[in-house]
Amino acid sequence: RYDAGKDGFIDLMELKLMMEKLGAPQTHLGLKNMIKEVDEDLDSKLSFREFLLIFRKAAAGELQEDSGLHALARLSEIDVSTEGVKGAKSFFEAKVQAIHDASRFEEEIKAEQEEKKKQAEELKQRKAAFKELQSTFKQ
């Protein structure tokens, strides 16, 4: 819902907007610290897995009471045991679809390249045939 870029990640600006919509706005530094606390792959954005990690940490009592992540977990009220499964399913289905789309795109590119090679070979053969014909007229 908060992934405005529809790229499967929540970046700093999307997190900022999300926190404002939830009624718990954060400072720029606070937002960076929120991401840093659960950013396993160090890409400075939240993946679905990292987003769920917020709620796991909250359930385990590992978040500071005054942290932005604690506020996010409290305001969002997501049950990881149910939503995590559904979310993971749709996340992986989207990944599989993206891979499928990418491979289909690659197949189209390969087909175009093969067609260009075929056309280049035909042109080469026509030129060779023309030169052969031309040589018969020169004699």
From TrEMBL:
PROSITE patterns linked to this entry: EF_HAND_2 (PS50222)
- Which keywords accompany this UniProt record? Calcium, Coiled coil, Metal-binding, Repeat
Q: Which residues form the EF-hand domain?
A: 1-25, 26-61
**Which molecular function term from Gene Ontology is one that the record holds?**
calcium ion binding
Question: Does the entry feature the keyword Metal-binding, yes or no?
Answer: yes
Looking at the keywords, is Repeat present? yes
- Coiled-coil annotation reads 95-133
CDD domains under this entry?
Answer: EFh (cd00051)
What's the protein here called?
A: EFHD2 protein
